[in-house]
């Protein structure tokens, strides 16, 4: 029986993936890294420091540290989130549906806590989640399951009794590795990819989350 719902943030709660893409496309060329839009799409859901380290190994630069490049990208994303407040359709509906079903609700994101807090402030969601967790300080981000396991522990619920709501395949792998039930809501252009079949349910939007669906998990 499902006792808790754990929400991803980027791409699920907020339409921030285009901002992560924009920030990378703006910042990486300033340190001499050649990067395409497809490159940014291919790393969706992966922690930004891991992305920066990957490009540093492939195309090393000398002008900034990896940490400084991470901060440049992150600060640009925060600016864009605060400016546009890009909430995904059905977010409040999905949260209310989970709460009405008696589920504990947590947030588990690969993003740094400063961006998580900026997002919660922008969307006026402070106090909605019983636990808010970032993979920022963990040895590995998603697809490693640790941030999801930590969310279950914070809620004092077994991962087996949790459902994770995700948009990316990277996040879906993390949730499945944590042995959680999964609902995936992929970006429309990727929705038909066969790999999303590993999710328990694939939906078109958060508006499709229902109490009947939660009970069926």
Automatic annotation (TrEMBL):
Protein keywords: Carbohydrate metabolism, Hydrolase, Magnesium, Metal-binding
Kindly indicate whether the keyword Metal-binding belongs to this entry: yes
State the top-level EC class: hydrolase
Enzyme Commission number, as recorded: 3.1.3.22, 3.1.3.50, 3.1.3.68
Cofactors, names only? Mg(2+)
Q: Which InterPro entries match?
A: Beta-PGM-like (IPR051600), HAD-like_sf (IPR036412), HAD-SF_hydro_IA (IPR006439), HAD_sf (IPR023214), PGP-like_dom2 (IPR023198)
Query: What are the GO MF terms of this UniProt record?
Result: 2-deoxyglucose-6-phosphatase activity; mannitol-1-phosphatase activity; sorbitol-6-phosphatase activity
| SUPFAM superfamilies registered for this protein in UniProt | HAD-like
Signal peptide start and end residues: none
Kindly indicate whether the keyword Metal-binding belongs to this entry: yes
**Organism the protein comes from:** Vibrio rumoiensis
Which family is annotated? Belongs to the HAD-like hydrolase superfamily. CbbY/CbbZ/Gph/YieH family.
The protein, known as = Hexitol phosphatase HxpB
**Superkingdom:** Bacteria
């Amino acid at each position: 029986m499902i006792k808790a719902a754990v929400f991803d943030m980027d791409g699920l709660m907020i339409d921030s993936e285009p901002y992560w893409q924009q920030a990378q496309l703006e910042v990486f060329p300033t340190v001499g890294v050649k990067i395409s839009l497809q490159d940014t799409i291919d790393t969706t859901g992966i922690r930004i420091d891991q992305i920066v380290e990957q490009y540093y190994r492939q195309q090393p630069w000398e002008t900034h540290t990896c940490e400084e490049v991470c901060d440049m990208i992150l600060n640009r994303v925060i600016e864009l989130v605060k400016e546009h407040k890009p909430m995904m359709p059905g977010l409040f509906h999905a949260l209310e549906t989970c709460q009405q079903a008696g589920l504990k609700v947590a947030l588990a994101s690969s993003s740094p806590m400063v961006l998580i807090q900026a997002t919660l402030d922008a969307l006026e969601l402070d106090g909605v989640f019983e636990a808010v967790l970032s993979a920022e300080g963990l040895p590995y981000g998603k697809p490693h399951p640790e941030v999801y396991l930590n969310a279950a522990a914070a809620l004092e619920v077994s991962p087996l009794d949790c459902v994770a709501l995700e948009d990316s395949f990277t996040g879906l792998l993390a949730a499945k590795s944590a042995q959680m039930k999964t609902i995936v809501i992929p970006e429309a252009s990727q929705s038909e990819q066969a790999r999303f079949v590993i999710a328990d349910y694939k939906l078109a939007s958060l508006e499709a989350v229902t109490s009947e669906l939660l009970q069926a998990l």
